[in-house]
């Protein structure tokens, strides 16, 4: 796994998306991490030091894996760039077919009204 700085990571992520346009997938995972071992974190807690948590981001296309660490200061800038890349590369997704709310409401009401009218006829007879 190759650990990159955030900007080269985004460039390589764009290249991964381009390579897998015709066939393949890219998996991206985000994880809360301090980049320290558990022993080091426990020592820092007992000493009263503040532990700086970062976001570990990994991407793989099955053949190549890349990763980066993003701190709280750079998170907003990284997230906006990452979102732009995702929006540009999600062109192959199909839009979900949605039912018209009125049609769905009318189709739900029709069976209920038949039940009520037949029940009313039975009680009146």
Automatic annotation (TrEMBL):
Belongs to the SRP14 family. Residues 103-115 have a biased composition (Basic and acidic residues). The lineage of its organism: Eukaryota, Viridiplantae, Streptophyta, Embryophyta, Tracheophyta. Component of the signal recognition particle (SRP) complex, a ribonucleoprotein complex that mediates the cotranslational targeting of secretory and membrane proteins to the endoplasmic reticulum (ER). SRP9 together with SRP14 and the Alu portion of the SRP RNA, constitutes the elongation arrest domain of SRP. The complex of SRP9 and SRP14 is required for SRP RNA binding. The keyword Aminoacyl-tRNA synthetase does not apply. Keywords: Cytoplasm, Ribonucleoprotein, RNA-binding, Signal recognition particle. It is found in: Cytoplasm. GO terms for biological process: SRP-dependent cotranslational protein targeting to membrane. This is Signal recognition particle 14 kDa protein. The keyword RNA-binding applies. It holds the Pfam family SRP14. InterPro entries: Signal_recog_particle_SRP14 (IPR003210), Signal_recog_particle_SRP9/14 (IPR009018). It comes from Sesamum angolense. Its main location: cytoplasm. SUPFAM superfamilies: Signal recognition particle alu RNA binding heterodimer, SRP9/14.
